[in-house]
Amino acid sequence: xxxxxxxxxxxxxxxxxxxxxxxxxxxxxxxxxxxxxxxxxxxxxxxxxxxxxxxxxxxxxxxxxxxxxxxxxxxxxxxxxxxxxxxxxxxxxxxxxxxxxxxxxxxxxxxxxxxxxxxxxxxxxxxxxxxxxxxxxxxxxxxxxxxxxxxxxxxxxxxxxxxxxxxxxxxxxxxxxxxxxxxxxxxxxxxxxxxxxxxxxxxxxxxxxxxxxxxxxxxxxxxxxxxxxxxxxxxxxxxxxxxxxxxxxxxxxxxxxxxxxxxxxxxxxxxxxxxxxxxxxxxxxxxxxxxxxxxxxxxxxxxxxxxxx
Amino acid sequence: xxxxxxxxxxxxxxxxxxxxxxxxxxxxxxxxxxxxxxxxxxxxxxxxxxxxxxxxxxxxxxxxxxxxxxxxxxxxxxxxxxxxxxxxxxxxxxxxxxxxxxxxxxxxxxxxxxxxxxxxxxxxxxxxxxxxxxxx
Lengths: 309, 136
Fold this sequence. Notes:
The complex is a heterodimer of chains A (309) and B (136). Chain A is α/β, with parallel strands linked by helices. Chain A has a domain of 176 residues: Pyruvate Kinase, Chain: A, domain 1, CATH 3.40.1380. Helix content of chain A is 64%, strand content 13%. In chain A, strands 3-2-1-4-5 form a 5-stranded mixed β-sheet, sandwiched between helices. In chain A, a hairpin with a 5-residue loop joins strand 4 and strand 5. In chain A, helix 1 packs antiparallel against helix 5 and helix 4 packs across helix 5. Chain A is elongated and about 115 Å long. The two termini of chain A are 24 Å apart. Chain B folds into 2 domains: 82 residues, ATP Synthase, domain 1, CATH 2.60.15.10; 43 residues, Single alpha-helices involved in coiled-coils or other helix-helix interfaces (Up-down Bundle). In chain B, the strands form 2 sheets. Chain B has a 5-stranded mixed β-sheet, with no helix packed on it. A 5-stranded antiparallel β-sheet of chain B has the order 4-3-6-7-10, with helices on one face. In chain B, helix 1 packs antiparallel against helix 2. The two termini of chain B are 29 Å apart. Chains A and B meet through helix 1, helix 4, strand 6 and helix 5 of A and strand 5 and strand 8 of B.
C-alpha cells in the first residue's frame, strides 16, 4: 500500500501534464477533422460555382435575342409616335412597396446572408419612414427565417429553391407580384440580392423591377422590319412579360453564383485558419511532450540517485 | 429548290436546346399554326402553347412541346425564344398527367383564392405535353 501511494504522489504532476498533452492531441485531431470538412465544402462550392456560372452563360443567347427584339419594337413604336403605355411601365406615387429579399437557403457563406438581410431592413425602414407600406417577399430560407422570427409580415416565401434552380420558380415569383402591380395594390417592386461580380467579389444590389424602365437601344438601322403577328403593341406587351421573367431569373442565377463564391471564400478562410491553429497546437504539443520527458528523466535520475544514496 | 435549308435555333432561358440547318419548321402561332420554309420574309410572331415540328430533311419530323414564346424569322435564319421546350421523347408523361389532374382538381373545386387564369394555363400546358408525347 505504502509504496503505491508514494508512487501516485510522485506521479501526480505528470498525470496532469499528460492530461494536457492528451487534451492537445485531441484538439489537434478534432481541428484536423474540421479542416477536412471545410475543405470538402470548399471543393463542393467550387464545383457548384462553376455550374452556376455556366447557367448564367446559358441564358445569354435567349436574353440577348429578347433584348434585341424588344429594343427593336420600342424603337419602332417610338418612331410611330405611339406612346409606350403598359401597366408594367406605369409610374405611380409610391404608397405601397414590395421588397423581394433574395438570400441563400443555407449558411456558412460568410456575410452573404447578413448583408442581404441588413440591406433589406434598411430599405424597409427607409420606405416606412417615407410613409409607404411594405410587402415583403422572401426568397431563400435564411431571410425567411430571419424575418419570420422577428415577426415581420411575410407575404410569400420561396425556400429551398437553389439546390435545383428552375426557370419556373422565377416565373412563379414574377406572377406573385405582377398581378398585385397591375391591380395597383403595389406601386413599386424592388429586389435585393447579392450580385455576382466575380469569384472574389459579390456586392449587394437593390434593383427596381417594377415599374419597368426599358432601355431604349441605339437605333439599329440595318434592321429590316418584320411582318408582325399579332400587332406590334400586343407583341410588345407579351415580350415585356417575358422580359420581366428574365430579369427575375437573372437575379436568382446571380444570387446563386454569388452564394457559391461566398461560400467558397468562407470555407477557404476556415481551412486556412484551421491549418494555422493546427500548427500552433503542434508546437504546444511538442513543448508539452518535451516537458513531460524532461520531468520523467529527472525523476528517474533522482530516483536512481536516491537508491544509490 | 424543294429541299433548301435554313438555320434554326431554339433557345430557352435555361439553355439553347436546338441549333441546326433545317428545311422546314412549323409552330403554334397565336393566330394559328404556321409553317416556315427557306426564304421566308422577316416575320415576328407570338407563340402559343403547342407543338413545334422540325424537319431537317425529308425524313420524319422531330417534335417538341412548348409553352409559348416568340418566333423570329430573319433573312439569316429563324430564332425561336420559348420559356420551355421539351423533346417529345423526353416528356415525362406521368408527371404531365399528375399536373393535368392537379389543374383539373383546382378548377373544379373553385376555391375563392383560386387563380383561374393560372390554373387554366397549367391545364393547357399539361394537355399539350401529353398530346405531343403521344404523337411521337
